[in-house]
Amino acid sequence: MSSNFEKKIDKTVIICHNKTANRIFGIYTGRLQMMNRSHTLWYNRPAENKNEALPLGNGRIGAMVFGGVEHERIIFNEDSLWTGRPGFNDQPNAASAFREAQRLALDGRYAEAQSIIERDFTSNPSAVYLPLCDLYLDFNPIGGYDNYSRALDLQTAVHTTVFESSSVCYTRETFVSEPSQVAVIRLSASKSGKISFSAHLKSQLKGEVRAERGIIAFDGVCPTTVIRRGMNQESVSFVYENDPEKRGIAFGVRLAVCTEGGSINSADGGIEVDGADCATLYFAVRSSFSGWNKSPDAEYKSVCDDDIKSAAEKGAGALLDGHIADWSALYGRCELILPESELSSRPTDERLIGHEEGIGDQSLYALLFHYGRYLTIAASRAGTEPMNLQGIWNDMMLPPWYSNYTVNINTEMNYWPTLTANLEECYEPLLRLIGELRESGRKTAKRYYGARGFCSHHNTDLWRMTTPVGNGQPGCAVWAFWPMSAGWFMRHLCEYFEYTQNEDFLRDTLFPSLCECSEFYIDTMVESKDGKLIFAAATSPENSFMTDDGRICSVAALSAMSQAIIRDVFRMTLDAAALCGIENDTVKTIEKLLPRVQGYECGPSGTIGEWNGNLKSPETHHRHLSHLYGLHPAREITHGSGLENAARLSLIERGDEGTGWSLGWKVNMWARLRDGNHALRLIDMQLRTCPADATFPSHGGTYPNLLGAHPPFQIDGNFGVCAGICEMLIQGTADEPIFLPALPSSWTSGAIRGLRLRGGASVDMKWENGKVTDAVIHRDKPKK
Ligand code: FUC
Predict the structure, then answer these.
(1) Which of 99, 213, 553, 575 is the most exposed place for a label (fewest CB within 10 A)?
(2) Which atom of ligand 1 is nearest to the CA of 716?
(3) Half-sphere exposure of residue 138, counting CA atoms within 13 Å on the CB side?
C-alpha cells in the first residue's frame, strides 16, 4: 500500500527520506501549502497550553501533542481511569421523600418540595475521570530553528512536527493506532546521528516508575475517592486504598524506545538517547477495569507488555499502514466541500481570528465539520468507554464537572453527529452505556421511586451510577433531581434503528428497552387537577423559576421537558411494537394513557411554558433549551405541527448567546426550523476565538486547537455544531429526503458526500446558486 505521506509530497519543498525505516517517514511538506485545508489543522509555533495542543486517540488511549522543539510534551489518557469502584448509593428515605415532594409540588408548595428532595433524596457525586501521565522529551539544545510547523492531518490522524536547524530537517510524527492499541512517536532527521534526547514520564497518580533496557515502566493506581474542600485544584485530596478488596483501578504504562544508530541508556526512571539516526517510541497502557459492576481485577501488566512487544516487532512502518487503513475506512466515508479563500491557507489559529474579523473562509466550516467526525473516531471506538465531557482528553485530577457523563444534554450531544455523519460503528460505546444504565437503573427506579422499569438521573460515570447526586447540598435539586435521562437515551436507541434498519436490534434491544423505560413512567405519573397525566414533581434541567412570593425554586409540578420525553418514549414504544407486531400489556397500557399525557402549555406571549402554570425563569437567556426538546432532538414539533411558531418564539426569547454546547444546540434547532442564516449566525458565534488560557465564566467559543470552549474546554460543542451542519444540509428520510432544508444564503455552492439518512441510505449531492444540481441516494442492502 502506498503511504498517505507519499501522496502529500509537495515537489517544491524539501523531502527527507528516512533511509533506515522500512517505510518512508518524515516527508517534509514545507509550510503545508499542499495540505488539504478542509482536513488539516496546522500552526507555525508550538503549543504553550493544552488548548493549543492537538488531540489524537484510538477511543481508549488519548494523546494531546504540544509539538515543542527542544521540549516536547504529550499528555496521555486512558478511558477507564476513573476514581471509585462498583457500588450503589442507597438513600433509605428516597421513595417516601419523592412521594412527599410530589404531594407538595402538586399543591404548589414548591420550596418545601425542593428542600425535601435535597435533604432526603439526593446522594453521592459521580466518580471522576482521571489523567494518566505526561511524556516529556527533552532534546539537546539546537540553537535557533526555522520553517517550523505542526499539523494534524484529519485524513490520517497523524500529527507531524517539522522544523529546520543548522541545515538539518527534523520530523516528528505521532499517531495512536486502534488495531495495535499503542501510540507511536517517530523522531527522524535529514542527517544521521542527529537524534539525542531524554524521555521521562510524569503522573499525578500514585505509582512507581522504572526504566531498564530501553523501556520505561510505570505501574500505578487510581484513588477511590476525591475529597473536596473548595472549588480549586489545590483544595482537593485523594483517598488511595491499599486493601485489595477496596483498591481503585490499577494500571500499567510501558514506553519502549527503539533507535537506529547512536546509544541508549536507562537511568533514574528515564531513557537517554544519544546520536541516533532515528528513534521510535511505542507507548502502551492497560488498566485493571473489568466492567461497570465488577471488581477491577483484570490482568493488565502482561497485556501491556504484549502490546509493546508486538508493536516493536511489527515496526513503525507496518503500524502506520495498519493505522491509516483502519482510520481512513471510517474517516473517508463522508466529506463536505465548501469554497476556499485566501485565508484558508493560513495556520488554523489565524484562520479563526480572520474569520471572526469577517474575512470569508467557508472551508473553515468544512474543517469544523470534519473535526467533529475526527473527534468521534478518535474518542469512541467499539469496546471503549463513551465520550465524556472532555472526550478522552483530560489533564486534571479535578476536572470541570469531574469530566463525567452529564446526561441532561452533554453526553447526548456528543453522539448527535455519529449516525448522520456516517460513523455507525462509533455509536457502540453509547449503546453499551445505555444497556448498562438499563441494568443499573432498575435498582434506582425501585429504591428511589418504588417503580418498575429503570431510570437514570443527570450524571453517570464508569460505574453506571444512576442515582441522583447533590449530597444534600441546598439548591442541588436544579440539576440533581432529574430522572429523565433514560428516556432521552431511548431516542438514541430509536435513531440507531432508524439509521441502520437493524431488525435484530429492533426486536432484541430497542423494543424491550422502550417497554421497560415506559414502565417507569407508567408507574410514576400521577393525575393532575385537570385529569391529565404528569410526572410530578419535576425540574427543567438547571433552570429555576420565580414563585408568586418571589422565591427562586426549581421543583415544580411538571416540566415541559419531562412531559415531552414521556410522550416521545410512549410513541416510540408504540411504533416499535407495530414494527415488531407485538401487543403486550405495556403497549396496551400506553395506548390508553398516551392521549391523557399532559401536552405543552403556551403562555400569553405565545412561547412554550417551561413549567406548569407558565412559571417563569428569572434568567430569560438561560443556556438550556429543555422546553424545546420536542423540536430537537425529538421530532414532535415539526414543520406544519402547529407548534413551530411557539418554538420559534421561545428560541428567540432565549436569545442566541450561550455556552459552547448551548450555541451548538441552537444551530440544530434553527436548522429544524429551516432557518439556515440563523443557524450559521450561531456557528459563527461558536467559532469566536477563546484565548487558550480563558476559563469560565465567559461566552462559548473555540480554542486555538478548534476544540469547543464552554468555556472551559468541553467537547460537546464540537459535536453539536457538526450535527447541526448535517441538519442544515439534509433532513427527512430515505423515502422522503429534504435536500438543503436550512442552507445559509452565503453557502451558494458546495458538495457533500456520504451523509446518512434515516431509513437506511446515504446521500451525495452538489449544489450551485443555492439549488441542488446533483443528488444520489444510495440505499443500503436490507439488513437482518
Ligand atoms: C450541564 C450544563 C453546564 C455544563 C455541565 C457539564 O450542567 O448546564 O453548562 O455543561 O453540564
Answers:
(1) 213
(2) 10
(3) 6
DSSP annotation of 233 = G
- Residue 390 in contact with ligand 1 by CB distance below 6 A: no
What is the distance in A from the centroid of ligand 1 to the CA of 117? 21
Rounded distance between C-alpha atoms, residue 699 and residue 688, angstroms: 9
Ligand 1 centroid distance, CA of 542 (Å): 8
CB contact at 8 A, 304 and 312: no
Which residues, at least 6 apart from 17, have a Cβ–Cβ distance to it below 8 Å?
Answer: 24, 26, 27
Give residue-wise pLDDT tens across range 649-691. 999 999 999 999 999 999 999 999 999 999 999 999 999 999 8
C-beta of 479 in contact with ligand 1 (< 6 A):
yes
- What letter would DSSP give residue 673? T
659 alpha carbon to ligand 1 midpoint, in Å? 9
C-alpha–C-alpha distance, residues 467 and 458, integer Å: 9
| pLDDT above 80 for 35 | no
CA distance 764 to 335: 9
Ligand 1 touching residue 710 (CB < 6 A): yes
- Position 693 scores a pLDDT of 85
One-letter amino acid for residue 259 of the chain = T
Average pLDDT on 457-479 reads 97
Question: Where does the pLDDT of residue 533 fall: very low under 50, low under 70, confident under 90, or very high at 90 and above?
Answer: very high
What's the rounded Cα separation, in Å, for the pair 769 and 748?
A: 5
DSSP 22-65: SS------TT-TTS-TTSEEEESS--SSTTTSEEEE-SSEEEEE
Exposure b/e, 328-354, CB count within 10 A at least 16 = b: eebbebbbbebebbebbbbbbbebbeb
Cα 712 to middle of ligand 1, angstroms: 11
- The contacts of residue 461 (CB under 8 Å, 6+ apart) are 82, 84, 126, 127, 129, 402, 404, 405
Read off the amino acid at residue 227.
I
3-state secondary structure (DSSP) of residue 600: coil
Q: Check residue 230 and give its pLDDT.
A: 72
Average pLDDT over residues 199-227: 97
Which whole-number Å values give the CA distances from 250 to 61, 205, 220, 764, in the listed order? 16, 10, 6, 47
Cα–Cα distance between 341 and 688 in angstroms, integer?
A: 19
What's the CA gap between 412 and 611, in Å, rounded? 23
Is residue 405 in contact with ligand 1, taking CB distance under 6 Å? no
Q: How far is CA 152 from CA 282, 316, 370, 574, in A?
A: 19, 18, 12, 46
253 Cα: distance to centroid of ligand 1 (angstroms): 32
Tell me what percent of the residues of the chain surpass a pLDDT of 70.
Answer: 95
Nearest CA to ligand 1 atom 11: 406
> Any residues with CB less than 8 A from the CB of 607 and at least 6 apart, and which?
646, 649, 650, 653
Examine residue 537 and say whether the peptide bond preceding it is cis (omega within 30 degrees of 0). Answer: yes
402 lines ligand 1 (CB under 6 A): no
**Average pLDDT along the chain:** 94
Q: Tell me which of 389, 409, 460, 626 to substitute to probe ligand 1's pocket, judged by most ligand atoms within 8 Å of the beta carbon.
A: 409
Instruction: Tally Cβ neighbours within 10 Å of residue 28.
Output: 22
